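Lecture 7 notes: from sequence to structure.

We start with a single chain of 565 residues. Read the sequence below before looking at the structure.
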Amino acid sequence: MVLASEASRTLAVLGTSSTTPVDLSARLKRVRTVADVESALHGVYGSFHVAASVDGYMYVRGSAFGSRRLYRATVEGAMVCADRARTLAHLTGADLDPARVAARLAAPYLPHPLADAPMWTGVEAVEPGHALRVAPDGRADTPTWWRPPPAHLPIADAARLLREALQAATALRVRPGQVLAADLSGGMDSTSLCFLAAEAGAHLVTSTQHWNSPGNQDHRYARLAADHLPRVEPLVFTSADLPACFTGLDERRQPLEEPSGLLRNRARHSHTAAALRARGAKLRLSGHGGDHAVVPPDACLHGLWRRSPRTAARVMNGLKARGRWGLPAAARMLLGAGSYPTWLTGAAARLRDGAKAIRGPALWGARPALPPWASDQAVDLVAAVLRRAAEHTEPLDPDPGRHAWIHQMREAGRGAALLHEASTTYGLPTDSPFCDDAVLTACLTVRPHEAGHPWAYKPLLAAALEGLVPERILHRTTKDHCGPDWYAGLRTHRRHLSDIADTAHLAAADLADQELLRRALISPGLNIGSAPELENTLGVEAWLRDLASHPAPAHLVPRHHPHEE
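Now the structure, written as tokens:
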């Protein structure tokens, strides 16, 4: 925390930031009311919370994209805020909200505003990009402090802004004389951060996972990168070196802020963290968020069609061929004009369609789908939440593509917060520089069709890192996956998965059909549901079990499971 105080004014910046006590004290002199806080902090970068008290007025906010979150609740008549909803739930004695628990089963992810909702009744999220302002008499509101920039820059100009933002964000994590850990997957995102960290003078120890899939190329690109990096100690872990995916399903831990799909690689992250710590690392960099930041969603074509139909048609033809879209789906993308509330209402009616049934581009973003094992009650609860949201929710931007891009950036921020929280328990906190506000805001300045066309892979990032990262890596056109390791992990832990199905807290809460869940968990090859649906379900189930074993606040699950009586 960096703190400055003068008379009845106090200003604090909590987290990773570029400010110093001397700098913040100078900035505080420009603050006369809480309305001056953001202008006084202009130019401070990193990932942080802000808290201010000015003449009895309180002002608190997190980050613009959710890597630093903020919640509020009324505790004994007073407004209290925290960066953890569970803290407020404990203070207020709140219960879990069954509808929000059920919503976390949806894949690929939840739409705005459901994605930001805390898991507890009586606890509210302060939406990313908004602040909590409390007057001396207790009246509170949530003013907007961040707005998206115009998307008007040619890719060369936006790439220059992105490079500057990434350089600053990465250098902020480099400490002179300290070893810095970094993932080096061989992909563009983590590799770029390694070269930026080396440019800032870091002594790197890197972690590369050599997946056990035929034709895997990631490790070759990671080796190429390591050969070009100064002051680097590369560590390579084969699938045989690491615990199987889903190891630790039967182990209970302190619950994270919310359910997470990180469960799959939890033991692997812990294993590699121990090796990196043994070499002196105290912080780890991750390329998480790169995909969300530099690749705009296909829905951006909708706005382009109105500004430049010829360009939109050309890009659409390329995307249509690459994604194998049918002509009706492509036409809906260009011509569809339904409002966001209408889209939410439609999503509520189609929760049973399943993630695999969703084909082609999505105008306002990916539509949520519940897995086949979700109970009728779960479907009803989530549908009701979506319909209520449709009554009062405005999109994040009037343009569907910009809305979808900002939302996917928020999803990256939410994931970065969970990754940092989980990794801290391993003794090696993980930072995600791509999810810093300045980096994501820089990405939003580009003309979307120049950053998201089908004829190059991540052209915005490639342009930003030209001359620093080896050209062969920047022009890579392939992307690997860990499918064989994923299935091998499920086979290895079939007994634990069977036990989970037999004693599922989701089933006890009537949010999942126990028999369908059992079939999906012990026979994933039957493809009863998609991989994201299965991972989300395991994440929710593990989170409920962790809560039950660490019952600080009240929880949804009965003390005695019916199968244990």
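The longest helix spans residues 400-425. Keep this in mind for problem set 3.
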